[in-house]
């Protein structure tokens, strides 16, 4: 489904973000990318979303080189890859419902589709009772749930979660991880970037470990070891 083929990203001779990275992500897999800050996790995700270009190598999504796509096709790619970030990136002047609806509006969906799909997404993340609250009225965990609802409402093939629990307390952290596992169980591929050892060790899923831009370990039921 996703294939990084000898991917390198060099910003300068003294700043090498990735070096000859190769690995595959299969459909419906739950994979964690781990490593310390600066290991290259976020750079990999930017390359997958075609937000940046590799210096060498290729990134494939379902046999398509994402960096060979015409510019007008990039929004289609990005709708197939839902994104969740550490800082939520919600629109502060819109309610939870409106934040989720915004993703469908951007995809050109009809009012009928929005009215049908948004409540389903909010129900899945357990936030239908907070649909009309604004982000500042929600806890950090609730805001992250809205962000996840926004990511899944367009029914993507993949969810990319970049440090999604980084700003959360332990209780909310585990709630978000359980939610990602639930979404994976419904058939969505999950790519989780994190440096949280507790999360990695508890998941018992595949772990790809990055260190200084290189893949140093790839284990089917891995732990966080550097």
Summarize the helix and strand pattern as letters.
EEEHEEHEHHHEHEHEE
Rg: 17 Å
User: In total, how many beta strands?
Assistant: 10
Which percent range fits the helix content?
25-40%
**Mean residue pLDDT:** 95
Function: Part of the ABC transporter FtsEX involved in cellular division.
Family: Belongs to the ABC transporter superfamily.
GO biological process, one term: cell division
Subcellular location: Cell membrane
Structure description:
Helix 4 packs across helix 5 (140-152). The chain starts with a strand and ends in a 7-residue tail after the last strand. It has 226 residues and is an alpha/beta fold. The chain has a single domain (2-219), classed as Rossmann fold (3-Layer(aba) Sandwich). It has helices spanning 41-48, 74-79, 96-106, 111-124, 140-152, 170-185, 197-203; strands at residues 2-12, 15-25, 30-34, 56-61, 64-65, 81-85, 158-162, 189-194, 206-211, 214-219. It contains seven helices and ten strands.
Q: Which features does this protein show?
A:
single chain; alpha/beta; Rossmann fold; 4-stranded antiparallel β-sheet
Topology, element by element:
Layout: E1 2-12, E2 15-25, E3 30-34, H1 41-48, E4 56-61, E5 64-65, H2 74-79, E6 81-85, H3 96-106, H4 111-124, H5 140-152, E7 158-162, H6 170-185, E8 189-194, H7 197-203, E9 206-211, E10 214-219
Parallel strand pairs: 3-8, 3-9, 6-7, 7-8
Antiparallel strand pairs: 1-2, 1-4, 4-5, 9-10
Helix pairs in contact: 3-4, 3-5, 4-5, 5-6
GO molecular function: ATP binding; ATP hydrolysis activity; transmembrane transporter activity
Membrane topology: Peripheral membrane protein
Subcellular location: Cell membrane
């Amino acid at each position: 489904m996703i294939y990084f083929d000898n991917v390198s990203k060099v910003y300068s001779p003294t700043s090498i973000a990735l070096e000859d990275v190769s690995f595959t992500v299969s459909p419906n897999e739950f994979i964690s990318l781990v490593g310390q800050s600066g290991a290259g996790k976020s750079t990999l995700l930017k390359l997958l979303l075609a937000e940046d270009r590799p210096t060498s190598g290729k990134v494939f999504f379902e046999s398509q080189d994402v960096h060979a796509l015409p510019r007008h096709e990039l929004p289609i790619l990005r709708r197939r890859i839902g994104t969740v970030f550490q800082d939520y990136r919600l629109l502060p002047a819109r309610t939870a419902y409106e934040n989720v609806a915004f993703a469908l509006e951007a995809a050109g969906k009809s009012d009928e589709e929005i009215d049908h799909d948004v409540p389903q997404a909010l129900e899945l993340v357990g936030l239908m009772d907070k649909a009309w609250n604004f982000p500042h009225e929600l806890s950090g965990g609730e805001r992250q749930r809205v962000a996840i609802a926004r990511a899944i409402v367009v029914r993507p093939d993949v969810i990319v979660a970049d440090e999604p629990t980084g700003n959360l307390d332990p209780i909310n952290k585990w709630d978000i991880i359980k939610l990602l596992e639930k979404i994976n169980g419904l058939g969505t591929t999950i790519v989780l970037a994190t440096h949280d050892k507790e999360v990695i060790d508890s998941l018992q899923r595949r772990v790809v470990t990055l260190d200084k831009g290189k893949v140093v370990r790839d284990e089917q039921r891995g732990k966080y070891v550097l």
